[in-house]
Write a structure and sequence with these properties.
Number of domains: 2
Oligomer: single chain
Strand content: 5-15%
Radius of gyration: 23 Å
Shape: globular
Number of helices: 11
Strand order of the largest sheet: 5-6-8-7-9
Number of strands: 9
Structural class: alpha+beta
Order of helices and strands: HHHEHEEEHEEEEHHHHEHH
Distance between the termini: 25 Å
Length: about 325
């Protein structure tokens, strides 16, 4: 059973490589705002955790040649034991090509069976260990900040911090260091930044993406996805905050980023002034609002990318 799970996990991981590579290229298009690029990482996460998708003629995978060995329906895998509405239209791609049956997986040769059984055991052990580490980091971060003093709303203060953080998942708290003045312009900028994270539930998405990367630990592009996702999370948050700022206010915001760049923080929490500070400062100082035409063009471009990446090919085999 474990090797069957790993077989489909491996196929999802291979599929995701194309999606992650396409998104890494798309984020190099400088005019695209990061607050538009950031949600697209959900496409990569979808491919890494969901084996099935609808087939379309505009799928990226229509152009991958013989890499897709076979398209498999839900009914083929479940053998009719778990019927679902529209399941006949949902397909998963078999890129490994080592199996002849899928519920459970039956391999073409005995050597393949033994290899997948050994690989699946190693995969499960490492994935479980990494997930335990991620959970432990979150527990330690929560314990580290449990003595923070409540100063109003969802805002706290702690003398254990040198930079502000947003801590927690279900009801995240903004925790300020003792060095920041509560009525200062710097504090208002920090609160604006952390409130964007809080509204978007970024700590929850951060944890979810970290867990996805741990499950696909054997795929280097999964870790590249996590790094780019975290960078885009902060860059998009900065953009959301400074959209209405003047040039002088953007300079002050950049100085605040630099000031808190080296501050101690719990690694499991979003923190102001961390994650690619140089790139963030450059983005803040060089920020330009999109024109209406630019916003429409960017949205259409990204919708086209989403449609191409989230769907499966129509080829048969």
């Amino acid at each position: 059973m474990l090797d069957t799970v790993f077989y489909f996990m491996l196929n999802m991981s291979i599929t995701s490589c194309f999606v992650i590579a396409a998104l890494l290229l798309a984020r190099q298009v400088r005019p695209l705002p990061r607050r538009i690029v950031y949600p697209l990482w959900a496409l990569a996460a979808f491919r890494l955790v969901t084996p099935f998708a609808l087939p379309t003629s505009w799928s990226l995978f229509n152009f991958t040649g013989g890499l897709v060995k076979r398209l498999i329906t839900v009914e083929t895998i479940t053998q009719g034991t778990a019927p679902a509405p529209g399941s006949g239209s949902l397909l998963t791609m078999n890129m490994v090509g080592a199996a002849v049956q899928y519920a459970p997986v039956e391999y073409r040769t005995e050597t393949l069976r033994q290899s997948f059984q050994a690989a699946s055991a190693a995969w499960a052990i490492v994935a479980a260990a990494l997930l335990a580490i991620v959970i432990a980091f979150n527990i330690l971060a929560r314990k580290e900040l449990k003595d923070a003093i409540h100063i109003g709303g969802g805002i706290y203060r702690s003398d254990k911090l040198l930079s502000p953080v947003l801590a927690g998942l279900a009801r995240p708290r903004i925790i300020l260091p003792a060095s920041i003045g509560p009525d200062s312009a710097e504090c208002r900028m920090v609160l604006a930044h952390e409130n964007v994270h809080r509204r978007r539930l970024d700590n929850l998405w951060r944890l979810s993406m970290a867990c996805v990367a741990c499950i696909h630990w054997f795929n280097p592009l999964a870790w590249a996805m996590l790094k780019a996702f975290l960078d885009d999370m902060e860059l998009s948050c900065d953009e959301s905050v400074i959209r209405e700022y003047t040039a002088e206010e953007r300079k002050a915001y950049a100085k605040a980023l630099l000031r808190f760049a080296e501050g101690k923080r719990p690694s499991a929490s979003a923190a102001f002034g961390h994650s690619g500070v140089k790139a963030r400062i450059a983005g803040v100082l060089n920020y330009k609002r999109l024109t209406v035409i630019g916003a429409v063009a960017s949205s259409l471009f990204l919708l086209a990318i989403a449609a191409a990446l989230i769907t499966n090919p129509q080829i048969q085999g």
